[in-house]
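We close this part of the discussion by returning to an individual protein. The encoding preserves chain order, so positions in sequence and tokens coincide. The sequence in question and its structure tokens are set out directly beneath this paragraph:

===
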Amino acid sequence: MSTKRKPPHRGVIWPAGAILAILVAIPAKAQENRSDYLFFVGSGFLCHTNDSSACPAVTKSSDDSTYELSGAGTFNTKGKAITAAGTFMHTSPNGSFLESGIWTANELVSFESYAIATSELLREGMALGSPELVPRRTPMLYGSMPSGGLAVIRIRLLPMRGRSRTAVLQVNCALGKVPEERQTEGIRLTLQGGGGEFNQEISGRTMFVATRAGAIPASKPATAVAEPNAAPAGVQQ
């Protein structure tokens, strides 16, 4: 593996420490603010797997430069309130390290739910919220349910050196009733002010977790099926 992609060790110490503190505080804040969802991007229990491509989430531009992001947050779909943060690393087309830093969420632009994904509970082998699945550093709320969806979030990139930039982050979790055009899980990133568009999902797991029953789209009631010999309603036998 080339060492060009790795930033100097001192360049990632304080972002990692800062985001760890934020991740620990997020579930408590979600409960306090009555948020609808937690979400994870290449972080937390998603990394508790043998799949090395799960974390971080990676997106690539047409010229092969990449952004790697990890993070987590919470948001409310009705009031559009969002609290989220994470780390990022930017590499050039040849894999050379360009910059690293942290990102914070400014605005939840939109969120489209694909509904809950009960099959994800079975795939993980246990219910979300159990101590065995969720590392202590990223605790989750009891009774949470995994959900697919697409979130569009306006974020600010804060590099170790240089000026900050605004970007639009798309987080797609392909669970539940996923539209045909959104089958690829991952992230996309568009830098504002002509900074570039990273629109190829390369790797990384993402997930939304519904923390309140009201956040989960209600399923349609089953349509009653008449028996072959049943009499029409209102007709006496």
